What does this fold into?
Amino acid sequence: MKLKKGILIHNQLEQGYEVVHINSGTVLHTALVTEPVNFHGMVYTPQYEDNARIAKRDWRALNREEIRGIQAKDKRNDYNTIYLGDIPEALKACFKRLDLANSKSREEVFEKFSGDAALTKELSSNLNSFLSPLADNKPFNFHCIGTNLPNIEMVACNTTKLPKDFKPKDIKYMGMHNDGTQSMTIHTAHKFGNRISINLGNDTRSFLFVNLSMIQALNMIGKKIDLKKNNVNIANIPKFFFEHFPDYPVIRVQQKPYQYYIAPTDNCFHDGSTLGNKELDITMVYFGAFQC
Ligand SMILES: [Fe+2]
It folds into this structure.
């Protein structure tokens, strides 16, 4: 299926569209053999939730027409555009001094953050100088420092229902999803801002997304089934979309260390991936209404 005009990319990376790929759609997780994880003595095969849909692995470069179709122009905002860029050198230097990238566990990452108060203060000031202009004078707030093991094909998961002492092998990954919560509907999902995610690990990670807003996805589903009878809503929309449009392409952005993406993750299907990686994946995430 051809890409529709939907969520666009504003790409400020030196590498341009070399880091952007496209595939031929999604499959149920059972259709592909899951790659095992093997990291510092942890050896296991990741599990998925029953209906998890994952991106096919037939990635290719975008052709000229596809690049033209996905490039954002001047009508950019916080819900219709994905922004790609490098963080400023001063901020990068601060992160490098924390030496997060060589951490072997989530605990080690947090110890490094809390271990040096002066550096953490400098970091926070640099982060503010970087984020304030992107936030366009609107409030923004720290969301989390996320870690993922290497070689996890689709990293999103809900660990809140697991026991406190859960092990990585107990996690069930959810596959392509939207971040919508109960407080939003398909028609209001674009009003909740976006997120910025910075890669603080040593490996290149991937951000995968479908370039359609929730309303576009709903309208497409509405041409296949009765939306009311099927009670299509913000929580079950990925199931309906991927069932009826398995051939709609996924876009993959490869995010090198110290690069960021800004994405309206309530308003589009997406996931992250550490497939093929060797080291711990570390990200820092802020919520806001960022744009540039
Ligand atoms: Fe998400």
